[in-house]
Amino acid sequence: MLGVLGLEEAQESAYRVLVSVGAADVPELARRLALGEQDTERALRRLEQNGLAAQSPGRPGRWVAAPPGVALGALLTQHRHELERAELAAALLAEEYRAAAGEPAVHDLVEVVTGAAAVTRRFLQLQLGAAEEVCALVTGSPVAVTGMENHAEEEATARGVRYRAVVERAVLDRPDGITELTAALDRGEQVRVVDRVPTKLVVADGTLALVPLTARSAEPAALVVHASGLLELLTGLFETVWREALPLRLGSRGVSENAPDGPDATDLEILSLLLAGLTDASVAKQLDLGLRTVQRRVKRLMELTGVTTRLQLGWHAYERGWVARDR
Fold first, then answer.
1. Using CB atoms within 10 A of its CB, is residue 53 exposed (0-12), middle (13-18) or buried (19+)?
2. Mind telling me which InterPro entries this protein's record contains (predicted)?
3. pLDDT greater than 70 at residue 137
4. Are 191 and 165 in contact (CB under 8 A)?
């Protein structure tokens, strides 16, 4: 079973016996394994190299097993990294093969970018080169660049580039999540929220896209996709997620004058975050309000709209234009 981690049968058997008995010397272990002492010694040395066993410092000649959760977990992680690097190498070799086969036009439609610095550079270049619109799917775990480091976004919006972003609900729970999103909304960007986005994605002007290639644990890598059927597929994916997402409203941007007894800017922020799925406690924390203040304001809005449930309040909020959404 542990052969996929590079262990031979004798080594796996020796490790299993050590785990079961706690500690054993070579002769005892050889009897249990029905192996010669030399073969048993060799298996133990191999386990030692893999961090699965060690000689007892207090009792020379005795061998003890490393905790499986730690030792095997480290081996699994190492092999995952090796597999991911092998997958990346295979992808690069496939690109080289296509180029050598005389298909430069097809080869140029997709390029592989590896390394955090390279991915960050292309991510910023996409935005700096955009002329009309940038669309993005944002997860709660940035790898190459965080929102606070994305100065290209500020520069692009200053040039009049439109931004549409769909963020995971986890983004709202990050310490700087609300601050970043409020700043984005204040720049005129459109932001919507869903439980989870299918992937990280950036599309610039509908002509260029950046999408992750590898898992979170591996070295960051991404595909840069040029105009092609794949780009159309990624653009369609964004539009589908966008249509299903809920708009986010934070800060005072775009808040119209309301009647004296209507909702104020804070009420609208609370409504937007509640509709995005946050609990009362999370809303209070993110807006730096007391929990009772949030609950009192929600109760007042329910009385104002004449409803008895929060579900009804959400419906009335859309009907009254307190929370805008495309029909």
1. buried
2. Sig_transdc_resp-reg_C-effctor, TrmB-like, Tscrpt_reg_LuxR_C, Tscrpt_reg_TrmB_N, WH-like_DNA-bd_sf, WH_DNA-bd_sf
3. yes
4. yes
